[in-house]
Amino acid sequence: MAATVLKDHRTKQRRKVLLLFILAAFAVTCLFANVLAGPSSISASRLVGGLWEPGSLSAVEQVILFELRLPSACLAFLVGAALAVSGVEIQTVLDNPLASPFTLGISSAAAFGASVAIVAGLGFPFLPVQWLVPGNAFAFAMLAIVLLQVLNRLKGGGPQTLVLFGIAMVFAFSALLSLMQLFASAQAAQMIVFWTMGNVDQAEWIEVSLLAILIVLIFPWSFLSANRLTALRFGADRAMSLGVDVNRLRLLAQIRISLLTGLAVALTGTIAFVGLVGPHIARMLLGENHRLLLPASAITGAALLSSAAVVSKILIPGVSIPVGIVTAIVGVPVFVTVILTRTSK
Amino acid sequence: MLSNGDRSRRELLKLATGAALFSAAPFAVKPAFSASPSDVSLVSRDAPDLSGKQPRVVLGDGHLIVALSLMLDNPVSVLAGWQGDVPKLSPELYNAYRVRHPELADIPVLGEAAAPTFSVERALALKPDVLVLGGAYGPGPADEHLSKRFESAGIPVVYVDFYQDPLANTADSLRLLGKMFGGAAKSRAFEYADLHERRVASIRERSQAISRPRPRVLLEANAAMQGMGCCWVPGGKGLGKFVTLAGGHNLGTELAPGRAWLKAEQEHILTSAPDVYVATGGPYQRGTSGLEIGPGVSQEDAKRQLAIAASASLTRVAATLPLNRIHGIWHLFHVMPVNILVMETLAQWLHPDIFENDDEALTLDRLNRDFLSVPLEGCFAVSL
């Protein structure tokens, strides 16, 4: 009897791992589709040829492929993965399926930081001018998260209190952002609006590399906590009885989330819903075991944002819609479904 | 040509990109962090030599086409692509050009009316000889991500400025473009640039000699425009410099000496006791309480709309000023090399005893006759 159950479980696990690989292949397909889609009419075969043999492309085509399409496609891929992994971690540590990396106010703080750079030109003096906006956005995201931790420590509160403080952060920074917009010139206000829409069009290789390095450092760290995170899904008490230091787990997860989300938002602006919807899709496909759920979320997030980027390029020929708008449009129906199924329980 | 499907999708985009982008566009004030790019000047020192061949130019600001029409008989023939601000913000101007040069409709449009919408990839794919940037409704010197990529593709980027500091940069910008095209274009551009400088010097000399107190001038951008609120006025730069040059005291200069436009507090404006009120507007104000003026607008319509705009303006100046101190000009002068008309007109309005009956004064008729290959037709300045 036990052997049958075990065998059954192993078959299921194998199936899930297979599904994970299929997902990964799909995500890579989306990445390539994103490289191949674009407003200029360079054929796919020419681009693929150019990837292996850059010399076969003209100077202009080389710039389009290597300085526009590739960095932007890679950034979309990485940001999608970063936000979705942050999403699944925050949903687990807050024990809240509606939480996203932005629930704790990281994006609002980042947007305010960006606006300070855009409107007032204030930022870190040692940074070159093109890093002023992302530098400020990252700094304010980190500031917000430190403030949040201090407040939560003072109260000694659990996840519920943390969410409440997070909501307070969102409102506070949104108000400050409005204040900056009030003082902004019309064009600066317009740039803030564009920034908060979230886009990957102006990606630079240096930005892609930065995020890639952070992901290489943080994803394995998350993966090492996978079993403890899975245990936490059964409730904090149960996890503690299994020997998990829940407070430490929560704190470390929040540090990872803050770094990943902070950098992703700083580079692209606010891209909504990937961090919320990515984890849910992964969960529906592969269940709660974080050893599978974490990589699956990364892959779904990457696929989701890459495909949103493709849609944003082909929806209106010749016009690139900020990808943040498209992800929200795709994300809202999924979000609503999650809420509906949740309340009907 | 755009198909109908493309057009309706384009309409959709207007909704998608949000009213904020669109409504803010007519102002096009430079963001603060790029207002003082320390290492890049607003006007390039050099431009590629395109004389002796059929040039292919991409315009980062569509309104720069007026600068081209000052020096070229057919400004459309050199266009490889352009930003979409002219059809969007000045459809009447667009039609005037399209009637003369129907091929304008086939020129690829590379964005809307704001810098972030300019498609770098589509512009690159056109493989133009040069990219000319104006920094008003499209990218400018601060957008390094763009210039870097053009330069690595071997396409030179040329900056001109009729917007940040038009008084200082209009003549140099035109000379730069003239040199780039060479031949007859060069001599026409130089002739206009010299004339521009001469007129600026002449007006400055006379206005500086005025000993009586300078009239306090309230210039209000897009007066009484829906959703704009109160009160967009020029700071010390942009049109504010023109007011000062013409012998006026620009109310916005003391509020923000370093900016082209600012939103002043209504109460401050209400208590500022201006002597002269100048509203700006455009044909896009048709059917609203704003000032309808500019290409394709008749003098009578403009005058009637000025009365409506002045009384609807939240600055409430109409009641406090005599009618002959209420004027209106076309808003888009703030991005165009024909800005000299603003100077001449303001000077005559502010100090008629000194500047009226000046035979040297540049008029719209003279610009149309001697320089502009596509004439500006309509009412561009009006008084009650």
Structure explained in plain terms:
The complex is a heterodimer of chains A (345) and B (384). Chain A is built from 14 helices and no strands. Chain A is mainly α and 345 residues long. Chain A is globular and about 65 Å long. In chain A, 51% of the residues are buried. With 384 residues, chain B is an alpha/beta fold. In chain B, 39% of the residues lie in helices and 12% in strands. Chain B is built from 16 helices and 13 strands. Chain B has helices at 4-16, 18-24, 32-35, 65-71, 85-89, 91-100, 120-125, 144-152, 166-181, 183-208, 239-245, 266-270, 299-312, 340-350, 352-355, 364-370; strands at 57-59, 79-82, 130-133, 157-159, 216-220, 232-234, 249-250, 261-263, 276-281, 294-295, 326-330, 378-379, 381-383. In chain B, strands 7-5-9-11-13 form a five-stranded mixed β-sheet, with helices on both faces. Chain B has a four-stranded parallel β-sheet with strand order 2-1-3-4. Chain B has a two-stranded antiparallel sheet with strand order 6-8. In chain B, helix 9 packs antiparallel against helix 10 (183-208). The longest helix of chain B is centred in the middle third of the chain and has 26 residues, at 183-208. Chain B is globular and about 55 Å long. Residues 1-40 of chain B have low confidence and may be disordered. At the A-B interface, helix 3, helix 4 and helix 7 of A face helix 1, helix 2, helix 3, helix 7 and helix 8 of B.
List keywords for this structure.
heterodimer; A: about 350 residues; mainly alpha; globular; B: about 375 residues; alpha/beta; five-stranded mixed beta sheet; 16 helices; 13 strands; about 40% helix
* Structural class by secondary-structure content of chain B: alpha/beta
Query: Describe the biggest sheet of chain A?
Result: none
The separation of the N and C termini of chain A measures 33 Å
Question: Strand-residue fraction of chain A?
Answer: under 5%
Shape, per Cα inertia axes of chain A: globular
**How much strand content do the residues of chain B show?**
5-15%
The low-confidence parts of chain A are none
Cα(first) to Cα(last) distance of chain B is 43 Å
Largest interface in this structure = A-B, 47 and 53 residues
What is the chain-wise order of helices and strands of chain B? HHHEHEHHHEHEHHEEHEEHEEHEHHHEE
**Whole-angstrom Rg of chain A:** 21 Å
Radius of gyration of chain B: 20 Å
| Helical segment count of chain A | 14
State the total count of DSSP E strands of chain B: 13
Tertiary shape of chain B: globular
